Structure to design on (222 residues):
């Protein structure tokens, strides 16, 4: 089930979502011009390496810095990696930015990425593999969308036997299925993807969405 777009038009131009996509693309282009050794150093310097904070010899080699908890979300491991993350950010980001406002949305996005990284960190304390990618922050955006726009519909490319067809799926069900897949993959220990970051980011986004919805409800009530 590959999402193509949602049916909710945004009321304002999503400047922050566009800016985030542009920054991610610029960083990825920079990655492409690095040679293999330079790219490896770049990933270890700005990617999130859990062992950097838990294993002394790794900390001595890389140095102590908290910046990777932010910088990791602007790095990507390949073309399909960045394409998938930016596509999902574009689909779910504009309406979420509408609801939160530009400044609030930027703070939310960055904090969701940090929270997602912390969640992955807890489950991979001694890993020496750099965690990179915007998927934790994007999962936060999806979690907020899940709460704020459950009755929106996601136009999805759906395989049916040997054919592909377009299906409109309510956002509530689409995102619930997506979250279930993340949980199942985390439980079976599927390697190479930060599943716990996806889960943490999504739950964080749900909490933000719930708080925003309650504030709006109280404002209209009084």
């Amino acid at each position: 089930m590959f999402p193509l777009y949602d049916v909710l038009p945004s009321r304002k131009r999503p400047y922050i979502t566009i800016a985030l996509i542009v920054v991610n693309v610029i960083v990825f282009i920079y990655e492409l011009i690095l040679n293999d050794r330079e790219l490896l150093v770049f990933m270890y310097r700005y990617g999130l390496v859990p062992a950097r904070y838990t294993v002394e010899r790794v900390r001595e080699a890389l140095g102590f810095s908290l910046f990777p908890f932010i910088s990791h979300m602007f790095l990507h491991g390949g073309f399909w990696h960045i394409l998938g993350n930016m596509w999902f950010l574009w689909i779910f980001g504009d309406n979420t930015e509408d609801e939160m406002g530009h400044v609030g949305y930027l703070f939310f996005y960055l904090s969701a990425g940090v929270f997602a990284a912390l969640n992955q960190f807890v489950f991979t304390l001694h890993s020496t593999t750099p965690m990179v990618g915007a998927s934790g922050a994007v999962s936060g955006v999806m979690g907020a969308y899940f709460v704020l726009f459950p009755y929106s519909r996601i136009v999805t490319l759906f395989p049916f036997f040997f054919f592909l067809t377009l299906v409109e799926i309510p956002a509530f069900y689409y995102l619930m299925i997506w979250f279930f897949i993340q949980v199942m993959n985390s439980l079976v220990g599927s390697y190479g993807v930060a599943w716990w970051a996806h889960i943490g980011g999504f739950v964080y986004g749900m909490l933000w969405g719930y708080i925003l919805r309650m504030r709006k409800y109280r404002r209209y009530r009084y």
User: Anything to note?
Assistant: The chain has one domain: 2-221. The chain has a mean pLDDT of 92. The chain has ten helices and three strands.
